[in-house]
């Protein structure tokens, strides 16, 4: 089991990174592998709806979005994190990544658990959480929760570490994730089956029902 933690902050090791490291520590204790992915601090294009992703399987713009898409299929779940004042950068990143995946039919995110984490000095957290969570609803991804909103407060990494409630909520998020995935038993779970596998099972079930209703069809 591997989870990718996406850092949407322009600061590679700032407050958002500190929150993600708290998750990483707990995931490791729970036996879940993690990988950090920083979107960088260079300007990111927003989606221009050119449709080329349907042909290419990735975005027409070569930047961190395509680097992310190239490895996303290797992970079992995702956490996207951002400071509230830079959620726009993460939104551009996720918009292109999810749009390219949808239109190329790659299903890199389909039915994989996801969660959002936000960092703020004071306010804006719930709006940013709502903004990020909408991508999971669009991407057919189950959202993993904690006991409260996944947010931390502080102007510096040290202040974030001192946010005892925020840190506790992140640890609970990682434990909830680990527990729900363990209970799911991935080798048999619908949540880790591809759309084609699900379609084949549905077709077989329909055939079984038809044969039961019309036994003579079995020998046809």
Secondary structure layout:
Elements: E1 2-7, H1 15-29, E2 33-38, H2 53-56, H3 64-72, E3 77-83, H4 87-104, E4 114-120, H5 125-138, E5 151-153, H6 157-161, H7 164-184, H8 195-213
Parallel strand pairs: 1-2, 1-3, 3-4, 4-5
Helix pairs in contact: 1-7, 3-4, 4-5
Q: What is the strand tally? A: 5
CA-based shape: globular
Q: What structural category arises from helix and sheet content?
A: alpha/beta
Uncertain residue ranges: 186-192
By DSSP (H or I, 4+ residues per run), the number of helices equals 8
What is the makeup of the main sheet? Answer: 5 strands, parallel
* CATH domain fold name of the largest domain: Rossmann fold
Neighbour order of strands in the largest sheet: 2-1-3-4-5
Number of domains: 2
Helix content: 40-55%
Helix and strand string, N-terminal first?
EHEHHEHEHEHHH
Give the name of the CATH architecture of the largest domain. Answer: 3-Layer(aba) Sandwich
CATH homologous superfamily designation of the largest domain:
Flavodoxin domain
């Amino acid at each position: 089991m591997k989870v990718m933690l996406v850092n949407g902050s322009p600061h590679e090791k700032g407050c958002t990174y500190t929150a993600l490291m708290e998750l990483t520590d707990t995931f490791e204790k729970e036996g879940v592998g993690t990988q950090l992915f920083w979107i960088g601090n260079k300007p990111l294009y927003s989606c221009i709806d050119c449709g080329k992703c349907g042909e290419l399987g990735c975005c027409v713009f070569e930047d961190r979005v395509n680097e992310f898409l190239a490895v996303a299929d290797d992970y079992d779940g995702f956490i996207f994190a951002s400071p509230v004042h830079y959620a726009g950068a993460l939104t551009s990143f996720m918009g292109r990544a999810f749009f390219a995946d949808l239109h190329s039919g790659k299903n890199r995110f389909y039915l994989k658990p996801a969660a959002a984490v936000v960092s703020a000095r004071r306010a804006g957290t719930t709006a940013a959480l709502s903004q990020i969570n909408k991508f999971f609803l669009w991407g057919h991804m189950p959202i993993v929760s904690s006991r409260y909103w996944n947010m931390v407060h502080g102007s510096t990494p040290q202040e974030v570490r001192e946010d005892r409630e925020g840190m506790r909520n992140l640890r609970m998020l990682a434990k909830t994730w680990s527990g729900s995935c363990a209970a799911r038993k991935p080798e048999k779970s619908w949540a880790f089956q591809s759309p084609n596998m699900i379609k084949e099972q549905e077709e077989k079930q329909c055939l079984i029902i038809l044969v039961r209703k019309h036994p003579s069809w079995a020998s046809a």
